[in-house]
Amino acid sequence: MTRQKKPVIFVVGLGPGNPGEITPRALEALRRCDLVVGYSVYIDLVRAILPDKEMRAFPMMHELDRCRHAVETALSGVTVGIVSSGDPGVYGMAGVLLELVHDMRAEVEVEVVAGITACCSAAARIGAPLGHDFAVVSLSDLLTPWEAIEKRLRLAAEADFVICLYNPASKKRRGHLRRACEAVAAHRSPDTPSAWVRMAGREDEEYRVLPLGELANAELDMFCTVFIGNSTTRSWGDRMVTPRGYDLPGAENE
Amino acid sequence: MTRQKKPVIFVVGLGPGNPGEITPRALEALRRCDLVVGYSVYIDLVRAILPDKEMRAFPMMHELDRCRHAVETALSGVTVGIVSSGDPGVYGMAGVLLELVHDMRAEVEVEVVAGITACCSAAARIGAPLGHDFAVVSLSDLLTPWEAIEKRLRLAAEADFVICLYNPASKKRRGHLRRACEAVAAHRSPDTPSAWVRMAGREDEEYRVLPLGELANAELDMFCTVFIGNSTTRSWGDRMVTPRGYDLPGAENE
Which residues on neighbouring strands pair with residue B224, listed in sequence order? Predict the structure, then answer.
C-alpha cells in the first residue's frame, strides 16, 4: 500500500507590501499553489506578480472563513496558499490555520513561509530602534481585554524594553495610543525618542521621529507601526537608534 | 555649485542563511556595492550568490572595526555593503554603524535593508509561537549586566508575553538558559509549551517543542532561538501555537 501524500497549505508572508521584499521562497510557494486566498489588499499584491494565478479575495475580519475555505479546498486535493502581509506568524494567519487544522483533525500539511514583519521593515526606515531587547504589543482590544494590554505596556516599560506597537489605531479605536503612552510614561521620560512609520516600504510611506511626550497626539491609523525607545535610545533628525549594550562606546559585542 | 551626492553604505539583512530567504531588494543593494564587508560566515553566503563581488571578511567580535572600515572606505567614494544575518536592526550592525556615522559626522548616507529576523524564521518551523504579544530578549551578558536581563525576563513573564530568546548560549556562556528558565518559572507552569530551533532554514536545521520544565536541560548554542509560550500557548507534536486572543474559539479579529 502506498501512502497518499497529504495536500499542502502554504501560509505565506508577503512582507511590507512591495514586490522587492517578498522572498524567493515565498514566491516559489505561491507558484506551487493551485489557489491563493487572502484579504483583498494582499490578493491584489499577489495578482500584480502572478497575474494568472487562481485567487479568492476575502474581506477583512473573516479569518476563520478564509482558513476553513483553505482547509476544505486543500482536502479536495488542491494545493492552497493563504497570504498575510508581514510575517504570517506575528498576529497573522498561521496560528488560526494551524489550530483549525489540528482541531478538525484534517489530513493536511501546513508549511509556514516567513516574511519580513512590520517591526523590522518599519524600523529600517528610521534607523535601528530595535537594536536591543524589545516587546511587541498590539493595541487592538478586539480579542484581548484592554486591561491585559495596559498591564503588558506598564511591565514592558518597567523592564526597559524598547516597545513596538502594532495596530496603534483604527477607525473604531481612537484614544488607545494616548492610553498606551500614559501607561508607559510612569517609567519613561517625555523626551524618550519615539517614532511612527506608516506604510513602510510602500510608495506612500511616511515616518516621524518625535519625543514620547508628543506621540500621544499623533494621528495614526492601522497602517502605522509605533516605536517607543528604552532608556538608552538616541535620536537625531529622522533617525532613532537603540545601542546594543549599556557599556561605554567602543565596547565590542559578539 | 552642484552638490556632490553622498556615498552610500547599505546595511543588508541576509535573513536566516539560505539564498531563498534573501529578498530581491537585499540582493539588488548588494549588487550595487563596490565592496561588501561582514563576518566571515555571512561573506561566504554572499560569495555563493555573487561570486565576483569584492568582499572583506572580518572575524566575529569586531563590529566596530568592520563599521569603521566601511565608513572610511565609503568616504573615499565607494559604495559599501555591510551584511548581517537575520535583520540588521535586531541586535545587528545597523545601530552600531548609524551611531558611528553620526558621531564621526561622516558625510555618508546609510540605507538599512530589512531581512527576516530569527524570531520569525525560527517560529515558522514550529508553527506560530509568536501569534500574540511577545518580548525578545538576548541572553548575552557581554554588553548588558545579567541583572538587567533577568529583570526583563521576570517582568516579561509577569506580563504574560510570549518570550523569544536570542543568543541562549555560547561556548563561554553555559548556564544562562537555566537561569532564564528559573526567572520565568515564577509566572509560568512547568507545562508551558516551549521550543528551541537551531539553524532555522538551513540544511542542518533541528528543532524541538518541549515543556518549559525540560527546557533548562537543553544543550543549546549560539545558533539556537528559544521560545517560551504565554499562558494560552498550545502545543501538539512538533507544533507550538499562541492564539491571537483570549476569546472563545470562533471569535474574529481584524
Answer: B198
